[in-house]
Amino acid sequence: MPLTLKQLRTFVAITQHGTLTAAADALFISKAALSMSLAELEKQLGQPLFDRVNHRLRLNQAGHALLPYADELIHRSAEIADLFTQEDSAFDTLRLGASDTIGNYLLPPLLQRFRQTTAHQQQSLLIANSRCVCDKLSAFELDIGFIESIPNNDTLDFLPFGSDTMVIVAATHHPLSAKPALTWADLNHQSWLIREPGSGSRDYFFNHVATQFTAWQTSLALNSSASIITSVSAGLGLACLSLHAAKQAIKANDVVALPIPLKEARPLWLAVRKDKYRSKMMLQFIDFARASTPSHL
Questions:
Q1: pLDDT grade, residue 145 (50/70/90)?
Q2: Among the CATH numbers 2.60.40.1930, 1.10.10.10, 3.40.47.10, 1.10.287.1700, which is that of 5-82?
Q3: 125 near 168, Cβ under 8 Å?
Q4: Dihedral angle sign, alpha carbons of residues 171, 176, 182, 187
Q5: Among 256, 282, 279, which residue's Cα sits nearest to residue 270?
Q6: Residues 96, 124: contact at Cβ < 8 Å?
Q7: Taking every annotated instance into account, which residue ranges of this chain make up the domain HTH lysR-type (predicted)?
Q8: Do residues 50 and 64 lie in contact, with contact meaning Cβ atoms separated by under 8 Å?
Q9: Distance between CA atoms of 150 and 200, rounded to whole angstroms?
Q10: Closest Cα partner for 209 from 193, 228, 226, 232?
Q11: Is the pLDDT of residue 1 over 80?
Q12: What are phi and psi of 239, to 5 degrees?
C-alpha cells in the first residue's frame, strides 16, 4: 500500500506538537485515529520514526530523514490543489518567526506592504529570541525566520537582511547623562541590563561593548527590550539596545542615548532551513522582504 498524504500530515503534526494528544487536536481528529495512522506509516516503512521518551515522541534518525520529504510533499499537494481552485489553501500560510527588534518594529510594516502588493493575508508571526527562532526553523515549525545573530546551526541558510544601529542608553538622572562627551573608560564599573541567552542584543553587547571594559557587572538579565527600557528608566543600570527599540523612550525623555557611538552596525539575517521545500509563496515573500529592506535600517 502506498504512503498517503494523510499519514504524512499525521507524521508532520506529531513532530510539531510532540504528543499524540496535541497533534490530534491540531488535526481535529481523535487520538486513536492519529495513533493508527502513525502505526500504519511506520509499518509500511518498516521502522519506527520516533523514540518514546516520558510520554513524548522524539524524532529518531529515520524520522529526521523523512521530515523534509514529508514537508515538501504536503506543500506540493497544496500547490496542485490551488491550480484548480480560487480558494487559498490552508498550507499557503507563511509561518514566520522573528527576534524581538525585527518582530516588533520592522516586520509589521513590511507585512502590511506585502499584503497590499500580493493580497496574500495568511501569515503567522512568532516573536522570540534568535536562538529560539532558529530552533523552530530546524524543527520545521516555522518557514522563515528573521534574526539578529547567527547561532551555531548547520541546518539553516542565512541571507543578509539589512543592518541595525545600536545605542547605549541610561536613565535621564544617571550621572553620565549630563556629560556632553564620553569615552569607554567612563563606562567602566557600571551595572548593565542585558538580554537573556539566545538574544542577538546580548550577543552584540558581549562581542562589541563588554570587550571595551576592564570591569562591569550585570544588574538584570531580561527577555525583552521593553522591560530593559523600563528598568533603565528606573535607574537599574545602562543598556545597549537597537535604536528601533529605544527611540520612542528617547523621544519621550524616559531614557537618554549616551554620546558614545558604536562603530559596528548589527547585521540582520533572514534564515531558512536548507532542505525546506520553498513554495512559490515562500520564495515570493523572501524576495519581497529582501528587496524591501534597505541596506541600513
A1: very high
A2: 1.10.10.10
A3: no
A4: negative
A5: 282
A6: yes
A7: 3-60
A8: no
A9: 8
A10: 193
A11: no
A12: -150, 150
Beta bridge partners of 170: 256
Asked whether 115 and 144 are in contact (CB, 8 A), the reply is no
- In sequence order, which residues have a C-beta less than 8 Å from that of residue 135 and are 6 or more positions away? none
Per DSSP, 210 falls in state: G
How far is residue 117's CA from residue 112's CA, in Å, rounded to a whole number? 9
Spatial contact of 67 and 59, defined as CB atoms under 8 Å apart: yes
94 beta partners: 123
- Residue 53 has φ and ψ, to the nearest 5°, of -130, 115
- In the structure grid, which three cell numbers stand for residue 254, read together? 524616559
Q: Greatest CA span in the chain, whole angstroms?
A: 77
pLDDT digits (tens, 9 = 90+) for 4-14: 888 999 999 99
56: enclosing H helix or E strand: strand 56-59
Instruction: Return the CATH number of the domain spanning residue range 93-162+267-292.
Output: 3.40.190.10
Predicted local confidence at residue 85, as pLDDT: 62
Encode 266-295: b = buried (16+ Cβ within 10 Å), e = exposed.
bbbbbbbbeebbbbebbebbbebbeeebee
Structural domain boundaries in the chain = 5-82, 93-162+267-292, 166-264
Distance between CA 105 and CA 140 in Å, rounded? 25
User: Residues near 95 by Cβ (< 8 Å), separated by ≥ 6?
Assistant: 123, 124, 126, 141, 142, 143, 144
Q: CA dihedral defined by 165, 171, 175, 180, rounded to 10 degrees? A: 40
d(CA 182, CA 214): 16
Q: Are 264 and 208 in contact (CB under 8 A)?
A: yes
Q: Which residue has the cell 500560510?
A: 93
Residue 11 identity (one-letter amino acid):
F
